Amino acid sequence: MNYETVDADSFGRSLKGIGLNLLVRDVMTETAFLETFFGMKAHQPTQDFAIIRYGDQLFQLHSDATYGANPLLGLLPETPPRGAGLEIRLYDSDPDLAAQRAKAAGYTILQQPRDKPHGLREAYILCDNGYAWVPSRTK
Fold this sequence. Notes:
The protein has one domain (about 10-139): Roll (2,3-Dihydroxybiphenyl 1,2-Dioxygenase, domain 1). The chain contains 3 helices and 8 strands, in the order αβαββββαβββ. The chain has helices at about 10-15, 25-40, 95-105, and strands spanning about 20-25, 40-45, 50-55, 55-65, 85-90, 110-115, 120-125, 130-139. The strands form 2 sheets. It has a 4-stranded mixed sheet, covered by helices on one side. A 4-stranded mixed sheet has the order 5-8-7-6, with helices on one face.
């Protein structure tokens, strides 16, 4: 499937398994964050929507404006953080490199890269929407 040209109906019908959709204030800012610090690829990014590819996995970003009739919109806090309690684990990302880049850009590093007892080296980085991105690699 060509994610640069696929229409919404065809894309929606192709989705299977578990899906992740992050509601964000600014799709373009979140897209830049994901591409810069984790090497993700955004397809068809607009102010309202983007298909995001991480390796062979996909997820979606939607702006608040696209959720006008969605029941989740009323549950969003007025002020950050929005994503409290959600860890988005990126098992194919270098935690040291991601944390270094994120720190240089002024993002919040909740936890510097460290080796964990479960065999991974990982860091915790907050995006502007309050989601905890956890780049991880085996030690």
